[in-house]
Structure formats: C-alpha cells, structure tokens
C-alpha cells in the first residue's frame, strides 16, 4: 500500500505510526525514561490496565506511555485507565527505521506488550538498545502452536520469544508449549490472567442496576449472548425461540463481536421475534441488539445466563471470565482454546456448560430458568471462589518488571 493511501487510511496517528512523536509527548516526559506498555486493541488494553494500576498502587510515579494500534484500543485505554498513564501514542509500524525512531525518541526503561503481540523488528531493536521487553498475560493459541510445531517453526518461534527478558503467561499449557520449543525456563513465568484483576475492579453494581431497570429485569429474566460471530446468531435466536415459548417473560440481549454488524443481526433476529437496537433506548421487545462498544460487561451483570461467542465457530472463544465475574453461568461451543484452562475450571465448578446446537443451548437455558431461584446464590459463590483463587496476577507481573527500573 502506498504512503498516500496509508496517510488517508490512518489519518489519526500517522506520524506516530512512523515513529515520529509529537512535541507534547517529548515535553511531558521531561527527560525521564518512561515505562512503555503496548496493547494492539481492546482485549490487550484490558489485559494491561490492571498492571498499570498495580504500578501506581505500588508507588511508582514515573511516566507511563501506552500505545495501541487501533482507535478502539485507544478509546478503551482512556475509558479504563485515564489517570494511570501519561500519554497515548499509536504503535509504530514494524519497519526498522520507524521502530528505531520511536525507541530513540521515547527511550523507555522497559517495554511490555500484551498477550500474543510479537513484532520482531521492535523486539530486535529493543534488544540492541539494552531495553528489557516483557510479554504480559501471554498465551500461545492453538493456531500459533500449530505454526511452532515444525522444525522451522520452532527455530523462528525461539528466535522471537527468546528476545523477551521475561514472559508472563496465563496458563500452564502456554508454559509447556514455549518450553517445548526451547525458550529458556528462566524467562517463563505462569502468573495467571491479569484480566481477572481487571474484571473485579470494573464491576459497578450501580451501572448494572441502571441497565437492569431500563431492560425491565424485574418483569423479564434476561439472557445474553455476547461477542457473537457470523454463524452463531442463528443458533442463539433459535434457542431463544424455544425458551420464549416455554417462558414468555424472558428477554435476549444479543451483542455481536463487531458492533458494525448490528444491522444484519437485527434483521436476522427480527425475522421471527420483535427486535430493536440498544441505542434506540426502547426496550419493549424480545431481542435487543447491542450496537455500541463498552457496555457488554455491565450488561452481563443483568443476565441470569450468558452464551459467549467465538466458540461455535472456530475463533478460539471470547472472554468467558466477564460474565462469570458477575456470578452468571456461561455456555459456549467447542472452540474455547484461548480460555482453555478457565473453561475446564468453570465446567468442573459447574458454572459452565458446553453446547453444540440450538437444542442443547435451549435445554441449558430452560434448566437455568427452572432452577434460578435456588441456584443464583450458588453461582455467585462459585464465582467468588474462583476469582479469589486466581487474582493477583497484575501485582506479580509488575513486581517482576519493576526489578529492571
């Protein structure tokens, strides 16, 4: 793609993407070396924010720069973390001259990237500049693992992962995969999921209760399908039709993973049920389609059950921790590779069920409706038990990074 096209496409942050920092950023740093944290988009930013919060709670008052690749990531950074960081920038394209320019102008004392973000030029140049790099909330997806298994994949994987000073992983499975390709175990640490800490701090019962009142949760039990992908909404709507015939006083919130699909999802739901958009602020319908970002987490808290998408289609699964943090039981399809350990734990605890089609999802929803009055307190207790056990990853991550300050 030519530079004029890139400039038009990335009108916001074009200079920063080429490694050029504004005078405002340079002046804000006042010659101090910042901690640079990078999250490509919304999910990665959510993983980083608890670490930044832990840094400030520990007494660190040095400058923090957060970078994102997407504008939605930037929006999420300001929504969740304003006051925790000193400035936001857009991440430089992974071309040697851009990366060098960014590193030299910012001169961070450490760099951290989240989850699966591996940019070789950035990591190589940080290594050359003797700046330690860390992978936060790291994971090795099944797709990545398939690429790493062969001899060439192992060689390439080791050369990239080996550039990190420390790799802080979510699950034991990720540790074993990286150990298998030869990453030194001295670099590998299983610290848990930082998003668990983030979720507990994000829960706002007042916001949840406001949504519950708007949705009429006192008269209708709320079911929700979150972060759905094409091919999943049909299953969810069909399951809800079955439930609705048995229990008329129910309502479905349907939140596509990408809100720009809301129109198509609305048309699908509207074929057999009365449907409307969340932004209309009119909730006298059977299905409410979410067409804005930043509200799904609070909406999960209003529901008595949640289907989580990216799981009936092969996307690795979306974040099942979000509804469970509210004590809401979850359902999902066979593809939950990105949250494999949490999935196994939730099924073992009895707060999750795996489904395969509309009938099996409807069966779970009907059973939850039957037993809601008895089981609601039980589910909340199971949620508290799980999160008490796995919280603290963010503080442990920051303590490990701070040793290099």
Question: What attributes does this structure have?
Answer:
Rossmann fold; 19 helices; globular; 405 residues
Question: What's the layout of helices and strands?
Answer:
Elements: H1 3-9, H2 14-17, H3 23-29, E1 35-38, H4 42-57, E2 64-68, H5 71-81, E3 87-90, H6 96-106, E4 110-114, H7 120-128, E5 133-138, H8 142-148, H9 151-161, E6 166-169, H10 172-180, E7 188-190, H11 194-202, H12 205-215, E8 221-228, H13 233-246, E9 250-256, H14 262-269, E10 275-277, E11 287-289, H15 296-300, E12 305-308, H16 321-325, E13 330-332, H17 340-349, E14 352-354, H18 358-390, H19 393-402
Parallel strand pairs: 1-2, 1-4, 2-3, 4-5, 5-6, 6-7, 8-9, 8-12, 9-11, 10-11, 12-13, 13-14
Helix pairs in contact: 4-5, 4-11, 4-19, 6-7, 13-18
What would your notes on this structure say?
With 405 residues, the protein is of the alpha/beta class. It folds into two domains: 197 residues, 3-Deoxy-D-manno-octulosonic-acid transferase, N-terminal domain (Rossmann fold, 3-Layer(aba) Sandwich); 173 residues, Rossmann fold (3-Layer(aba) Sandwich), CATH 3.40.50. Helices cover 49% and strands 15% of the residues. It is built from 19 helices and 14 strands. The strands form two sheets. It has a seven-stranded parallel beta sheet with strand order 3-2-1-4-5-6-7, with helices on both faces. A seven-stranded parallel beta sheet has the order 10-11-9-8-12-13-14. Strand 2, helix 5 and strand 3 form a beta-alpha-beta unit. Helix 4 crosses helix 11, helix 4 crosses helix 19 and helix 6 crosses helix 7. The two termini are 39 Å apart.
């Amino acid at each position: 793609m030519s530079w004029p096209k890139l400039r038009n496409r990335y009108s916001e942050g074009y200079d920063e993407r080429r490694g050029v920092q504004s005078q405002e950023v340079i002046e804000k740093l006042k010659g101090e070396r910042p901690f640079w944290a990078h999250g490509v988009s919304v999910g990665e930013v959510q993983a980083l924010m608890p670490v930044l919060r832990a840094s400030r709670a520990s007494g660190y008052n040095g400058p923090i720069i957060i970078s994102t690749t997407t504008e939605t990531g930037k929006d999420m950074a300001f929504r969740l973390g304003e006051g925790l960081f000193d400035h936001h920038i857009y991440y430089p394209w992974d071309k040697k001259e851009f990366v060098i320019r960014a590193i030299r102008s910012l001169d961070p004392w450490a760099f951290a990237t989240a989850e699966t973000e591996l940019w070789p030029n950035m990591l190589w140049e940080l290594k050359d500049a003797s700046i330690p790099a860390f992978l936060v909330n790291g994971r090795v997806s099944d797709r990545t693992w398939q690429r790493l298994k062969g001899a060439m994949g192992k060689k390439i994987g080791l050369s990239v992962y080996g550039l990190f000073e420390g790799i802080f992983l979510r699950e034991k499975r990720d540790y074993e995969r990286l150990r298998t390709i030869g990453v030194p175990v001295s670099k590998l640490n299983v610290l848990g999921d930082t998003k668990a800490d983030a979720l507990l701090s994000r829960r706002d019962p007042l916001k949840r209760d406001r949504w519950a009142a708007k949705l009429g949760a006192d008269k209708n039990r709320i079911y929700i399908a979150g972060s759905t992908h094409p091919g999943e909404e049909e299953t969810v709507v069909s399951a809800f039709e079955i439930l609705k015939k048995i229990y008329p006083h129910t309502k479905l919130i349907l939140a596509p993973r990408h809100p720009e699909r809301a129109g198509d999802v609305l048309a699908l739901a509207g074929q057999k049920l009365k449907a409307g958009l969340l932004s209309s602020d009119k909730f006298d319908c059977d299905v409410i389609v979410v067409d804005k970002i930043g509200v799904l987490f609070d909406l999960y808290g209003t529901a008595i059950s949640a289907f989580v998408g990216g799981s009936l289609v092969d996307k690795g699964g979306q974040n099942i921790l979000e509804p469970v943090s509210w004590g809401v039981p979850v359902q999902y399809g066979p593809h939950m590779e990105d949250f494999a350990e949490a999935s196994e734990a939730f099924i073992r605890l009895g707060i999750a069920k795996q489904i395969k089609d509309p009938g099996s999802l409807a069966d779970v929803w009907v059973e939850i409706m039957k037993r809601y009055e008895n089981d609601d307190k039980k589910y909340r207790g199971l949620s508290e038990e799980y999160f008490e056990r796995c919280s603290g990853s963010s503080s442990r991550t920051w303590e490990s990074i701070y040793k290099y300050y």
